[in-house]
Design a protein that fits this description.
Pfam families: HicB. This protein has 185 residues and is mostly helical. The chain has helices at residues 5-10, 47-68, 93-105, 110-161, 166-170; strands spanning 16-19, 28-31, 41-44, 173-174, 177-178. The chain has 2 domains: 5-68; 89-185. It is built from 5 helices and 5 strands; from the N terminus they run H-E-E-E-H-H-H-H-E-E.
Length: 185
């Protein structure tokens, strides 16, 4: 197959979409990390708009790269067959000794114990990411609630000062002058 513009445009490159915070203008940003986060980057008010803009950027950049003879990386599909389930890791002797002790203490093989520790670490890492995300969202909600509470308090204070009973405390205004005595009520 001829590797022309049409060929590269038809490849399925992984796209990274990021929501842009409202205080930074809002909308969405789209990029193709494999081809360069900054070279293949677009944005838009909606996801569709960001993706359409990314297609325009892809076409322009691919055309320029083909014109100049710059090699264009192609996406690699990682198949399950590529992973054998085995890998060699060198660890310090002290860590090896500790892993063996813990696997013996738990009555399982070293391989089973290392698999357990790795899985636990990955799960913990994912859990940390999730809790950090929710913690950030919770902080945002609390901040918004404080703003609303402040606005409510501000309106209540304003209501107190602008109420019809205020003139009884200050006094009745007559001919641009207040009565000598203020009424309470």
């Amino acid at each position: 197959m001829k590797k022309d513009l049409y060929y590269y445009m038809s490849l399925n490159y992984p796209i990274e979409l990021i929501k842009i915070p409202e205080d930074e203008g809002g909308g969405y940003s789209a990029c193709i990390p494999l081809l360069g986060r900054n070279a293949f980057l677009s944005d838009g008010e909606t996801i569709d708009e960001a993706l359409k803009n990314l297609e325009i950027i892809k076409e322009e950049n691919f055309s320029r790269m083909l014109e100049k003879g710059i090699p264009i990386p192609e996406p690699q599909e990682q198949m399950e067959e590529e992973f054998s389930g085995k890998f060699l890791v060198r660890v310090p002797k002290e860590l090896h000794r500790e892993l063996v002790r813990n696997s013996n203490k738990n009555g399982i093989s070293l391989n089973q114990y290392v698999q357990y520790v790795i899985t636990k670490g990955i799960s913990f890492s994912s859990f940390e990411e999730i809790t950090e995300t929710y913690s950030n969202k919770f902080e945002q909600v609390l901040t918004e609630m404080k703003k609303v509470e402040y606005e409510i308090q501000e309106k209540n204070i304003y209501k107190e000062f602008s109420s019809t009973s205020l003139h009884y405390i200050v006094g009745d205004k007559q001919d641009n002058e207040y009565d000598q005595y203020s009424k309470v009520g």
